Amino acid sequence: MKKTATIILNRNLPKETNKLVEHLIKFDNDHADIFVVEAGSDKDRLSKYCTWHVNTREIMKHGMRYSRGMNYALLQLWNGNDWEKYDSFFLITNDTKFPNNQETVKTLRQLLIDNPKVGIVSPCSERWGEKVLIGNDSLKYFWFIHNNAYFLRKDLVEQLMNSINPTYMDLLFDGDNFRGYLSESELIAKAYANDWAAAITTKAFSEEDESYLLDKSNLIKTESYQQNLQLYVDEGLKWVKKKYGFNSRWQMMQYSKLFYDKFFDYCPEEKINKI
After folding, report:
1. How far is CA 178 from CA 65, 146, 226, 229, 249, in A?
2. Which residue of 5, 67, 170, 247 has the fewest CB atoms within a 10 Å radius of its CB?
3. C-alpha R_g of the chain
4. How far is CA 274 from CA 121, 190, 270, in A?
5. Distance of alpha carbon 270 from alpha carbon 104, whole angstroms
6. Whether the model pTM is above 0.90
7. How many CB atoms lie within 10 A of CB 213?
8. What SS3 class is residue 230?
């Protein structure tokens, strides 16, 4: 039976990363192989579960962030002998937290089996308004999903990825979008354009612990929370203008929603999951 390659991105928070890995080992070991990317971590602050320590001069200085870090891990699997072992990928950062006793990977794998048009599924957050929209249905399709815990079907990844001499800058996510501004919308738009749906489920939950960035920015070797937020927007708007000619977040969101709406024209049987 194939498994899910579960990729965790870390920088200088070994204790937190170890705890996340050990939760997944305890509840999902039969369903997941876990890979930890150390994205510019110091030698004395590596997780004991470190798979790859990326320590070039540039990355030690600036880190990798989500897009480049996840691309890097997928690239190692693609170039190695392990790619064929997996039918899905779970992309999470070390500030992700799951409820106690939750079999996250097992649950999300079953959702992909039960919903063959879903290419992306995310656990819900207790804080998200989407929880209300989903209601008693347990799963609905959306055109925007926060990317703290993306579960991707391998068929989707292979359809969207750059397979011609890929690098950590361009395998799946656009590495030029360093801080990941609207990278969720870009990926989801591509999914719907290729007849794959993106879903949120309340059968599994995850939370983003923002205290890591608020309280540990020096350890992570990054800017403060407020500086990060400002750079995220400022740099991101320049990226989306250069790549798409859009001048606002709203325009990019509408671009994604356009493909969302068209998806149901081609797959009317999926309207049961439309919000």
Report:
1. 7, 16, 17, 13, 16
2. 247
3. 18
4. 14, 18, 7
5. 24
6. yes
7. 17
8. helix
- Residue type at position 6: T
CA distance 161 to 237: 24
Cα 231 vs. chain centroid, distance in angstroms? 20
**Distance between CA atoms of residues 196 and 260, nearest Å:** 9
Tokens of 181: 């501004």
Q: Domains, the chain, ranges and CATH?
A: 3-273 (3.90.550.10)
Per-residue pLDDT of the chain (275 residues; tens, 9 = 90+): 899 999 999 999 999 999 999 999 999 999 999 999 999 999 999 999 999 999 999 999 999 999 999 999 999 999 998 999 999 999 999 999 999 999 999 999 999 999 999 999 999 999 999 999 999 999 999 999 988 899 999 999 999 999 999 999 999 999 999 999 999 999 999 999 999 999 999 999 999 998 888 888 888 888 888 999 999 999 999 999 999 999 999 999 999 999 999 999 999 999 999 99
